[in-house]
Model the fold of this input.
Amino acid sequence: MNDDLAALSARLDRTNELLQRMLAEVAKTPSTHAIFVDAGYLYAAAGRLVSGTEDRRTFDLDAEGLIEALIDKARTIFADSRLLRVYWYDGARRRIHTSEQQTIAELPDVKVRLGNLNANNQQKGVDSLIRSDLESLARHRAISDAALIGGDEDLVSAVEAAQGYGARVHLWGIEAPEGRNQAEPLLWEVDSQRTFDLDFFKPYVSRRASAVYEATATRPTRDDVRFVGAQIAAKWLAARGREALVELLPGHPYLPGSVDQDLLVEAEGLLQYSLRGQADLRRALRDGFWEHLQTQY
Done:
């Protein structure tokens, strides 16, 4: 009898030891978050807020700059977590990428998922894509937190599916000039809510009639823009010092939203050319900025 008790006790000790090891491994595993963007909601709400219209044909959205700002915001909110990727959901006729969607798809850490666009330019199938991805990622423990940018009541089932597997879903919205642009049932279901205001979106949305540089200037080359990026980096480093550089480097290849916007505005002034919507030139600008800073570290 004593031998049986001793054997049982040994097995319990072994089981407890294995559980402790598993818990220790889980504790060491970093949390992971992803950002899910319903582009239809984003274009409509941001366009209405900044330019007074939901018609995509009347304004430009600097998707690359906005995505980087969202990534930077998520890095601040989920401080002890790493980004899995940004999921960008939009509609397209016959699910064929437009040139703008293709440019977004080429961005690092971004996955474009397309639903259909019907004859009335209405998205079809986007909500089901969001639910599928949210549920799958939560089920496989690929994410612990999901930042969802959208407003449709049909997204409630996607939120519930992800929460059922233990993920927390945080609803990010866009300030409405009046009333609300997100369904109340969606607001009730999520784990937290956050609204971004006019100041957040203003740098990334502009009416197409307001472009000021293209008519009077030729398009600069990538090398020209990269050189300007390096010039601005040298000026930035001289003004802020190496301590600021040390704080900036861990975020590579992303820049904090405020730094990125200052870089863009100063570069456009030096080049006398608008870089809004010019993804390749914006990338060259950041490359030049980073390359100079890294040589100084």
In short: Residues 243 and 273 are 32 Å apart (CA to CA). Residues 210-215 have pLDDT under 50 and may be disordered. The radius of gyration is 23 Å.
